[in-house]
Amino acid sequence: MNVFSFIKKELSVSENQLVKTIQLLDEGATIPFIARYRKEMTGNLDEVILADIVKYKAAFEALEKRKESILSTIKEQGALTTALEVKIKNADSLLVLEDLYLPYKKKRKTKADVARENGLEPLAHLIFKQVEEEVEFKAQQFTTDTVTTVEDALQGARDILAEWINEDERIRSTLRRLYQRKAVISATVIKSKKELEEAQKYKQYFEWEEPLHKCPSHRLLAILRAEKEKIVRVKITVPESDALDAIDRHCIKTNIEACTDHIFIASSDAYKRLLAPAMATEVLGQAKEKADNDAIHVFAQNLKQLLLASPLGQKRILALDPGFKSGCKVVCLDEKGDLLHNENIYPHPPQRDTTLSIKKIKSLVNAYKIEAIAIGNGTAARETEAFIKKIPFDRAVQVFMVNESGASVYSASKIARSEFPDYDVTVRGAVSIGRRLADPLAELVKIDPKAIGVGQYQHDVDQNKLKNELDTVVMSCVNTVGINVNTASAPLLSYVSGIGDKLAENIVTYRFENGAVNSRQELKKIPRLGGKAFEQAAAFLRITNSKHPLDNSSVHPERYALVKQMAKDAGLTVQEMIGNTAAIQKINISKYITDEVGLPTLNDIIKELQKPGVDPRKTVSVFEFDPTVKTIQDVHTGMKIPGIVNNITNFGCFVDIGIKESGLIHISKLANEYISDVNAVVQLNQQLMVTVVEVDTARKRIQLSLVD
């Protein structure tokens, strides 16, 4: 088995596509680069398929590495046969591989080991052959000073038989299929925890049972979290008779009861003591892995939508981090997001210094030519919004509510300290709120994605897998949008294809020492930004004031000569060609097809020439909550109120309706027809008009609906 056959088993791609893609990956190409600029080589594979290829390639490499280790270990034991070596080399999964290795794995001393030391293995073989009618008579020959009775000898033989049954790859494979089909998960509350307040959120799982393969990912993760918090006990079971019948079908070869009776006893022991715990752990692990993948997928979709949220753009922004007793932190930012001014105002109780607060805000708006106001959506947000909207400004100023999840994490981070070493966390947090309005992507990349607040169970899933998936999403978003090399922060630059942390720091240092980068060719002067990094990164880095008109586009420098030829053929310069729709529509792109450049790349170039450097994100719009809804007490069944989707799960979406508690639209209430994918109906930050279905004030839960 090679890497190509391994991946083709999982994905519907041709071997040629795999060969070319893996070649590019091995040469150091990134997923965004391959997806955008090597379409002809890969047969136009998109980022999703490319990411899957990367994942399965890594899985294959891990499998091969494990095979090498196992083969080496068994060879050292002198137990490696040609047949076993072939089986190991042909194993197509870690489960099969570990089954083959199990008899040779070093383990602590077992009952079977003791029996072998007492010379009882020949008796076990005799029983397992199932031809001896006088088993007990034969067993007398194995009694010794250590094995004093016939029953001791037979018990030792059964211990060896139980180990053989446990280590039989065919039996394990059969039981694995049984558990995959019939395993039931059950949860039972620990009596001493039943009345505790922290246990009540798991109340529905106090007595719970369902087929494991039908347990949805969010429910499984909730049950396992309850078990981790020692609220419930979890069991995985299958009908014992089915399991024993499956084992005995492999083991029983004759009807000689003198032997088969002992095999029945050994198989029952093997199942209860060895196989059942192992299979339960394995099948629960597989279910947990699937649940992790589902949760990570939803988290990744949410993160992508959040990162690609509408930016306000380069505007002068006044940002407020609201508060009551501690006041509201106010910062003023210029078009680049640089901090111009900060101070506190106290418009709310207990101070209620409204008059002075209004005077300060009006003064700051005028002094710093503020174009928009950003208000964090935390404590005192609605009150602060109402206060701001009462101020009669002398200029048109838009007011936006901004999701501040993770702002406190950023404000205490190393990145924030390096950006604002002379300011405290309150100033940094307010700056982050303002910058999020201007460009969500540029600001959110500075925060650990898990702290952004758009996932569920992110602390319960495989952390390495979560990090890899989210890093892939961030890189995809950054490269989809394209980055201004002269204004981007080091954290943002680090996600550009081919850059990374060190090169990002080098770019920032180069800008500080030499001023703005004036062309893509100048990028090569940056220390350690060599030919490969330039190839991977250049087209994703924008230079707005470059002399070369394509430096602010997504056209790769390797295709500049091609565009120049197109312009020349049209009797124009490249500059004259850009944005000239009439001239571009006359281009016969088929005449520019070569062995390296096909229609996919040519179509991308034509599209970019029409609107070079256009941000693919939508424009941000102002949103207003219902002014009469300020607390959960103001929410009543039957109301229709505006809201914004602030989190998406497999079972529905949560909607911010302007109060502390978000409402839930269950998946069954998203549409009049059945849907299986919440993201097919709603997206993060989407503005909705929802109907209140139920309000549980005591539990602080609000049920909403989009269905009339």
UniProtKB/TrEMBL annotation:
Q: Which GO terms describe its cellular component?
A: cytoplasm
Q: What does the record give under GO molecular function?
A: mRNA binding; structural constituent of ribosome
- Per its UniProt entry, which superkingdom is the organism in? Bacteria
* Gene Ontology biological process terms from the UniProt entry: nucleobase-containing compound metabolic process; translation
Where does the S1 motif domain start and stop, copy by copy? Answer: 638-707
- Enumerate the PROSITE patterns for this protein: S1 (PS50126)
One Pfam annotation, family name?
Answer: Tex_central_region
Entries under InterPro entries matching the protein = HHH_9, NA-bd_OB-fold, Ribos_protein_bS1-like, RNaseH-like_sf, RuvA_2-like, S1_domain, S1_Tex, Tex-like_central_region
- Its name, as the record gives it, is S1 motif domain-containing protein
